[in-house]
Design goal:
Layout (H helix, E strand, L loop, with lengths): L1 E7 L19 H16 L6 E4 L3 H14 L6 E2 L8 H9 L7 E6 L3 H9 L7 H8 L6 E6 L12 E7 L1 H4 L10
Parallel strand pairs: 1-4, 2-3, 2-4
Antiparallel strand pairs: 1-5, 5-6
Helix pairs in contact: 1-2, 3-4
């Protein structure tokens, strides 16, 4: 059994129309949301043997804010392939995870992270959290899946059970919802 956690970057700033998408920072709500989610992850006692993340500025700032809540930083493997990746690309990347970590945290973007949940978690009434993802997987959302695999190279569609889903608005109503998420 493996554990895969997904953390979507927090709300980014669109005020500079000239900025490249890759270089967009977090806005004020995003900074608050990332910190709140970091506190939630810490309070939940989750531990990750490996952290893999998109190197986009908004992802790096999300991790930085969450780390403030954790009171420490941790090594991050930056992988450009996560930036705006499809679910298929994310699955391929996860299959390449070496060293056999029990748990991996992937920090990235939609629609790839949301689609990854749809591909890994069967659609059935036994998993009501999946239905919540179908409604919305907003910025700074944190999800945890248990994978019925022994090694990461065995990752396949429908091998997961979604065990946890928290959106920023679940922690603080002022952190959502917004039509632009």
């Amino acid at each position: 059994m493996k554990t895969l956690a997904l953390f979507r970057h927090a709300k980014s700033d669109w005020s500079d129309a000239r900025a490249r998408d890759f270089d967009r920072p977090l806005n004020a709500r995003g900074l608050r949301g990332a910190l709140a989610m970091g506190q939630h992850i810490m309070a939940g006692g989750w531990h990750f043997d490996r952290v893999i993340a998109s190197p986009a500025v908004r992802v790096a700032e999300t991790i930085e804010q969450a780390s403030k809540a954790w009171g420490r930083s941790f090594p991050v493997e930056w992988d450009r392939r996560i930036y705006l990746a499809s679910s298929a690309t994310l699955i391929d990347l996860l299959r390449e995870v070496g060293g056999d970590p029990a748990s991996v945290l992937m920090v990235g973007h939609n629609p790839g992270l949301e689609d990854l949940i749809f591909d890994l978690v069967p659609q059935d009434s036994a998993n009501p959290l999946r239905a919540e993802v179908e409604i919305k997987f907003p910025t700074a959302t944190f999800a945890v899946m248990e994978l019925a695999i022994e090694r990461w190279d065995q990752l396949a569609e429908r091998c997961a059970r979604l065990t946890h889903l928290t959106r920023p608005r679940d922690l603080d109503p002022e952190l959502g919802p917004d039509l632009n998420d």
